[in-house]
């Protein structure tokens, strides 16, 4: 089957500013695609283009193979969930959820049934007759989601839906909503600046920067094999070390390790903090900072050339501040970017 | 998350080296040098100590005195409107065994055949012999007409200014909320420009112009307190056309501002004297002129009755607008 949503060379200019630059990406049916990037990278503009609130300067938007570039938002059948929830305060929770069905002239009893089912599904059945203003942020977000899902949208668009919530609630909702989207087989586009959230919620992630998509891939592809420096830096924590690749070896100047691939010449080696291990190894380093974080200890160590690296160590084996240690590198977990 | 610390470590290469021994001496225990308890506690001073003790009684007392000072004349005026006369220190309420009188009210409303009745609210219609002060309805209608025009013009302006960014937006905003011109200037200008306009129409348009800022400001603050764009976009994505979104989502959510704007506009329009005095020529008399004619060249007690009538009408219209607003939005919205 064809992809649910396809952006074909979408470019959006606002005056002289290029917000989205030749973006082409697809969302498969039932898939959640994450759109992540720093603020101002064009991810929200991309989402609004899919919703129909922005018309691309160039390029096309296709739903199920059909061009919808100039179809107005109300005729696109997309669900929208905002960070601000944007609930209709003049209506009860139930009326909010029924709104889209009412616009589709569904009979009253059918609307009521659908709304009840959805509210139950989202575990807020008992709030049906409340005013949205009396609900907590997490509850409001559930209502917003129920309202958007009620119309059985072709694609559900979520714009930073969890950003206003506290960390603990956020994690709980991430699990719940992620599971729900999967169970209901909802096709979704999930915009967030929080790459960790995207990794939990999304089947694939598109990393955006300056209006351009830098890489699209599954969470592990993007994390383990970042396409470039920006992705390596933006997704997760990374140490990027300059090295020279030669004869199957990576030469860091002060240490040498086996190379994971056959690159030659100057390279950037992306090393995740968990790829370092304390013990016999080619790197000698001095511990400069040490943060105890409970499940692990985050350590910043200085290499002989003055470069700092971040290590993620088990509390039982983490050295103390000022200590001189030897570090081994798990070469299966490093990723080499050739200099371009 | 640990991202912050890590990316910092990745970029600031020289950080460990910069923490030289000199720095360590200047900053013992890693804190600020001046944190040795040398900052004295703040002395509130004599005034501070006095206000701390007397502050609350002082505020309560001031509020009470102000309230009594403001309320007393209103109560006295209302009571006096039922008195037979007020020549001594206190008004006379009992005469010839009659407690209170409605004569002043009847005169002010133009319901009696006494001299000067036509000066009240003009003649009254009689239904089965009972006089009905219809002109008072027209008077209120003039101000309501102004409010109606304000709703038609003010809400779209407030919406456009809040929702969209367009050329001249700042100017539109400034003009809409400028308390344009004093009524007297607008009145003269109206007479000069539209000399053939019936005075009722002129009055309504003038009221709406003069009071437009209050409507625009009230509605605008309502619009600004919600996430107008996201709310609107949610409704559109759910299948509502733009007009439907405007009437079922945008307007009902601005209910508070619209109702309070209407109440303020009506009250101010009803009390607008300068403009009314200049523009009025014939037909139903504006409310403020009714007040004026009952106050000047009339006994104090009749003026009291007129003022009491004005108060009563303001209260009733305010309550009606409130109720109407509530009801209207319930019909318009989904609830």
Task: Give a short synopsis of this structure.
The complex is a heterodimer of chains A (about 350) and B (about 325). Chain A has helices at about 45-50, 95-105, 110-120, 135-150, 165-185, 195-200, 220-225, 230-235; strands at about 5-15, 15-25, 30-35, 60-65, 65, 80, 155-160, 190, 205-210, 210-215, 240-245, 250, 255-260, 265-270, 275-290, 295-300, 310-315, 325-330, 335-340.
Q: Which strand order does the major sheet of chain B show?
A: 1-2
Radius of gyration of chain B: 31 Å
Largest sheet of chain B: 2 strands, antiparallel
Number of strands of chain B: 4
Shape of chain B: globular
CATH architectural label of the largest domain in chain B? Orthogonal Bundle
Keywords:
heterodimer; A: 340 residues; alpha+beta; 5-stranded antiparallel beta sheet; 8 helices; 19 strands; elongated; B: 335 residues; mainly alpha; MetI-like fold; 2 domains; two-stranded antiparallel ribbon; globular
Structure in words:
The complex is a heterodimer of chains A (340) and B (335). In chain A, helix 2 packs across helix 3 and helix 2 (93-103) runs parallel beside helix 4 (137-150). In chain A, strands 6-7-8-3-9-10 form a six-stranded mixed beta sheet, with helices on both faces. Chain A is elongated and about 75 Å long. The model of chain A has no long low-confidence stretch (mean pLDDT 91). In chain A, 25% of the residues lie in helices and 36% in strands. By secondary structure, chain A is an alpha+beta fold. Chain B folds into two domains: 1-14 and 38-80, no CATH class; 124-333, Orthogonal Bundle (MetI-like fold). Chain B has 15 helices and four strands. Chain B has helices at residues 3-11, 15-18, 21-26, 45-80, 103-109, 134-163, 169-177, 183-193, 199-224, 228-237, 242-253, 255-271, 274-279, 287-295, 300-332, and strands at residues 94-95, 98-99, 125-127, 130-132. In chain B, a hairpin with a 2-residue loop joins strand 3 (125-127) and strand 4 (130-132). Classes of the chains: A alpha+beta (340), B mainly alpha (335). Chain A binds chain B through residues 51-53, 72-80, 82, 84, 86, 88-92, 95, 98-100, 102-104, 144, 147-148, 151, 157, 196, 233, 236-240, 273, 286, 288-289, 291, 293, 298, 300, 302, 306-310, 312, and chain B through 1-3, 5-7, 9-10, 12-17, 226-227, 230-231, 233-241, 244, 249, 252-253, 255, 329, 333-335.
